[in-house]
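wait is this the right file?? whatever heres the structure
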């Protein structure tokens, strides 16, 4: 089954053709990063206008790269939630029109499902069920339990900022370019991650909170450079030495990674039957996170860099031992961590396999926010 997939929920205009959920026949992504680097963040109206200009050429290119015409496409899939209102509208209106024109079934896909299903692409061995998925992106920080395909239970979520948003905001304070995640990762390589002690939030069980960490970095910088807490954050970067900047980047990254993995580890203890851990979403591209996650599981690579083995060390205190022998830790190929349409095609395929019916192209709506289900 060949699916033409469209993604436009934020600032990437993307189209891809995916065969049987995992085979990438084409994958085209036009990013608006260059436009928004100038502003230091996404401006929704500008994003929508850029999608409008790019979307048809991107779709045509994806068909051309796959060397296919509309006759060979079995279905269209599109992201309809969550995301920026104008951006989602451009993608869904285009997909609806194409579905009607070419008489193809249309599938509406939740963006976070797509981030999880990115892990099935370019991965020799796929995640096993039941699994835990840590989805970490610009707008979300959640742990989900999946007992099987297309079954999602949110078992932890952020109370405020997403971790990607926190990377972006801290980068801005440090005077590093947008998008903040990759900038901090690069800067952190030069820094001492133990120089500044930053707090872990006190939130229940498997939930997260990242707005306090951002403020903690701000206060620590103000203290370090000797200015009052009323000092404007956008003026701070120029007071930092190169060394202070990279030490702050490294200390922040270490703290964010520790917080994420602490919670994932707790989830693993609470759900001892899981066979795979999936870490997906834009922040999952972070190399330090990947390395630390592997260490956490005391993995041995056995030749496959993306799919490594872990074994729990201690038997459960209650004597029950229903742990699988191995826990597989999987990440998407880094080129599918951020927004792309290949992951939308993968998610749509597994929805279809799970019995989901096509949506009505005349009435499909968008939702800027809505939980995964
Ligand atoms: N190497 C990295 N380290 C840390 N963060 C990163 C890295 N690369 C990208 N990011 C962060 O990932 C985020 C973008 O991810 P993604 O594209 O999945 O988010 P989004 O689509 O905007 O939000 P959502 O998926 O929640 O709707 C940004 O916050 C960016 O800074
Ligand atoms: Mg995303």
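ok assuming it is, sequence goes like this
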């Amino acid at each position: 089954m060949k699916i033409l997939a469209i993604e436009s929920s934020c600032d990437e205009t993307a189209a891809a053709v995916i065969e049987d959920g995992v085979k990438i026949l084409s994958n085209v992504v036009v990013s608006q990063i260059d436009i928004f680097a100038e502003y230091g963040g996404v401006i929704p109206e500008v994003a929508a206008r850029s999608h409008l200009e790019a979307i048809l050429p991107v779709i045509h290119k994806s068909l051309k790269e796959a060397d296919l015409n509309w006759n060979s496409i079995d279905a269209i899939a599109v992201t309809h939630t969550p995301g920026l209102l104008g951006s989602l509208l451009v993608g869904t209106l285009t997909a609806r029109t194409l579905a009607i024109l070419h008489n193809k079934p249309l599938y509406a896909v939740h963006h976070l499902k797509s981030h999880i299903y990115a892990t099935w692409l370019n991965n020799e061995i796929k995640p096993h069920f039941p699994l835990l998925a840590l989805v970490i992106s610009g707008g979300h920080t959640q742990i989900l339990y999946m007992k099987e395909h297309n079954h999602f239970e949110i078992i932890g979520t952020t109370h405020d900022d997403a971790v990607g948003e926190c990377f972006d905001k801290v980068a801005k304070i440090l005077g590093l370019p947008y998008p903040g995640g990759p900038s901090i990762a690069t800067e952190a390589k030069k820094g001492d991650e133990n120089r500044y002690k930053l707090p872990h939030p006190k939130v229940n069980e498997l939930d997260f909170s990242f707005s306090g960490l951002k403020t903690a970095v701000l206060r620590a910088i103000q203290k370090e450079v000797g200015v009052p807490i009323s000092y404007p954050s956008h003026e701070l970067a120029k007071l930092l030495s190169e060394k202070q900047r990279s030490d702050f980047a490294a200390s922040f990254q270490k703290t964010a990674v520790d917080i994420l993995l602490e919670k994932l580890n707790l989830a693993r203890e609470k759900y001892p039957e899981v066979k795979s851990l999936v870490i997906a979403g834009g922040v999952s591209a972070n190399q330090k996170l990947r390395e630390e996650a592997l260490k956490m599981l005391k993995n041995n690579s056995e030749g496959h860099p993306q799919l490594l083995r872990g074994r729990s060390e201690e038997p459960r205190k209650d004597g029950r031992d229903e742990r699988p022998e191995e826990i597989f830790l999987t990440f998407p190929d880094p080129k599918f961590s951020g927004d792309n349409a290949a992951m939308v095609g993968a998610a749509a395929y597994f929805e279809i396999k799970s019995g989901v019916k096509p949506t009505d192209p005349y009435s499909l709506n968008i939702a800027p926010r809505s939980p995964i289900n």
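Residues 125-330 form a domain with the Nucleotidyltransferase; domain 5 fold (CATH 3.30.420.40). so i think its the right one actually
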